[in-house]
Write a structure and sequence with these properties.
single chain, alpha/beta, 2 domains, elongated, disordered N terminus, about 190 residues
């Protein structure tokens, strides 16, 4: 007789005090429902149980995320790295999106953020198709500045260095002029 051990993947669970998640593998849909805040997570630290509970088993199967009305926040690192995530539904009940929440969701090309959102964490949408398609410069979502992208940042640093050198040259000129004036007045 041979013993066979099998472990069933959990397709649902808790992701906040009053929030639950469920994954439908036939449609690739992850649904977050309930009321309140979503837990914050860490960068893919599954050995300590700190990554989002759907990441280890389903991150490359998730194609759609539906966050239902009543959820008020999206946690840090919640959907990193759901590389096949294409569709995202964010309800008007959401007020904050955590840092790195959708980082690495490289297939996510369209993002609609409701006006109810008052806080978006650092790099929340970096390394998404949406982010990568934005032109260099300042990137805004609604009225929030998300990031200064690539070339614009380099230009700002160059401008800062040039302004510093111009200021130094002006100070040198002023000092030289004062020195000459003091020499002439003697």
């Amino acid at each position: 007789m041979v013993a066979v051990c099998s472990f069933a993947q959990a397709t649902s669970g808790k992701c906040g005090e009053n929030l639950t998640w469920s994954f439908d593998s036939s449609s690739g849909t992850l649904t977050i429902s309930g009321t309140g805040e979503m837990n914050n997570y860490d960068l893919n630290v599954s050995s300590t149980g700190s990554s989002a509970p759907w990441i280890d088993d389903f991150s490359n199967q998730i194609e759609q995320v539906i966050i239902e009305d009543g959820v008020i926040s999206i946690g840090n690192w919640a959907f990193y790295p759901c590389e096949n995530l294409i569709f995202l539904t964010i309800p008007n009940s959401i007020t904050s999106i955590g840092a790195y929440a959708f980082t690495g969701c490289i297939s996510l090309a369209s993002i609609t953020i409701p006006e109810s959102v008052t806080s978006i964490g650092a790099s929340a949408f970096q390394v998404t198709a949406w982010y990568n398609n934005q032109p260099d410069g300042v990137i805004y979502i609604n009225k929030y500045c998300m990031r200064i992208k690539e070339q614009c940042l380099k230009i700002q640093l160059l401008r800062y260095k040039m302004e510093r050198y111009i200021l130094q040259a002006m100070l040198f000129f002023i000092n030289a002029t004062l020195f000459l004036l003091s020499f002439l007045m003697v």
